[in-house]
Design a protein that fits this description.
Length: 309
Amino acid sequence: MGGKQRIYKQRIAATRTLGKVFRAMEMIAASRIGAARRAATELGPYEKALTQAVAAVAVHTDVDHPLTREREDTPRVAVLVIASDRGMAGAYSATILRETERLLTRLRDEGKEPVLYTSGRRAQSYFRFRGIDIEYAWEGESDSPSLDTSKEIAQLLLDRFLDPSTTEGVSEVHLVYTRFKTMVSQVPEIRQMLPLTVVDAPSSDVERTTERGFADNVDDTFPEYEFIPSPEVVLDAVLPLYVGSRIHNVMLQSAASELAARQRAMHTATDNAEELITKYTRLANSARQAEITQEISEIVGGADALVQG
């Protein structure tokens, strides 16, 4: 076997091995994305119930809760970035990091001091490589977030927002994540989670919020409620639950988006590997034909030399 033919054979073998890896990763992502989508969808009724509960309290009382108050005593602003732990997901993490850079630039231009929190190794390594401090980082669950981790993140951000200290507390909480729409469409989003904004509304066809507040439409007529022990105590219990459910939903949406992006990227990589194998096979056949032609020419030339001799 000639040198060129040997090189092409080695490339075919290496590409075929990579193709098998890509195909396996595509199948794994495809098998897991259904569960991720169901998890994000099944959280919807719980969120709706919480939204209706908060809306009911807001309709019957003047809402004045620490989670709804604007803070002006500190320029610190928390930014939670949700990216992936692993690569091979196309532009999934790169898109989120690009949106985060834009948000950080905007916040700094407004005279605020962003404080970074990251979920996923990609975001953590990206900002640390650039010398940007990270307050806290979570990793290892980007494509399958657990409820415990979501609660931990939510509690930490709530504690920072409610902390009266101007050096440890924050005046706002922003989320940067990817919203899952369809298998071929995942949209990066920036949402201000805190402070919550509760909008006054009539008793029917209620939309309870702005982009940073309760974004569900509550199409109910609220009956008269009696709150025991008081509306304030009910809000104390319900609002943190609402924030926790929103953060868990955001992480589930990001997980489904990551898996969809990885499946699509690995499908494309598998197709490219097949194309390379076809290309290298043709080149190897051409090299083999050239070697055979050269050998035949040498044999005929040697035979002619013997005859003439």
